[in-house]
Amino acid sequence: MDRSVPALRCRQIDEGDVAAVAALLGRGFPNRSGQFWRDALRRLAQREPPPGFPKYGYLLESGNVPVGAILMICSMLRQGERIATRCNLSSWYVVPEFRSYASLLVSHALSHKDVTYMNVSAAPHTWPIIEAQGFARYCEGVFIALPLFKRSAADAAVRVFDAARTPTAPFEASEQDILQRHAELGCISLWCETAERGYPFVFRPRRVKRIVPCAQLIYCSDITDLIRFAGPIGRHLAWRGRPVVVMDSNGVIPGLFGAFRPGSMAKYFKGPQRPRLGDLAYTEYALLGV
């Protein structure tokens, strides 16, 4: 290490670092306002991470001056019969003169055991870097759909309503919690109810190319549920001004009218549990609106 550089250390971001980290990320991501980062860190402050995990992420500092940061959104989620820990690595930036020490920051972020790490917004030029870190791609792109055009005779027996209401049909309590928490984050949380059960759906309002209003799929129990109820859900979203639905995909989705865009919003993971398509719960898309 260059002896002219003050001692480097990496540690968890704490509450007293929030203003400095917001300013640092504003420097690294000039397309985002300072207010965006202050709001992002405020939302992380309101969450309680799993025991032993950081509330905000990690900070790289030189002589008590922040020179790098990586945000982490850590959650405990039910996967079948077990509870799994998942961490979304987000918004990684190191000032240019300290880029050679960026691996120190990443190694701290990846030091937790039995965790599935996700990188869901990696820019194409960073793909070789994160693949060298041991990440594997699990999502090749996105499918852009117009579900409102799908019609079925069974649609009449389907009810779509806001998650503020409770289904009369059976439903999973853990999924009701997901819907309620994501509604608090500004997402569109819906129940799709049939006589057999209530099916949960979460969408994040977005704009395609910053122009066309759309709804990004954040969570559903299974992609086949969205295909099955595409018509009623699509018309409900269209009524709310969101006729286009964007969802993670590894190819064309049979049964939906739309187009697959490979390479767009590709997503990576590292760890014991391969994430499934249709589950971006508690990631940066939901919390930060990225």
Q: Can you characterise this structure?
A:
With 290 residues, this protein is an alpha+beta fold. The chain has 8 helices and 12 strands. The chain has helices spanning 18-28, 34-45, 102-109, 127-132, 173-184, 223-228, 230-239, 284-287, and strands at 8-12, 57-62, 65-79, 82-94, 115-119, 136-145, 159-162, 188-193, 198-208, 212-220, 244-249, 258-270. Strand 9 and strand 10 (212-220) form a beta hairpin. Helix 1 (18-28) packs across helix 2. The model has no long low-confidence stretch (mean pLDDT 91).
What is the compact description of this entry?
The chain contains 8 helices and 12 strands. It has helices at 18-28, 34-45, 102-109, 127-132, 173-184, 223-228, 230-239, 284-287; strands spanning 8-12, 57-62, 65-79, 82-94, 115-119, 136-145, 159-162, 188-193, 198-208, 212-220, 244-249, 258-270.
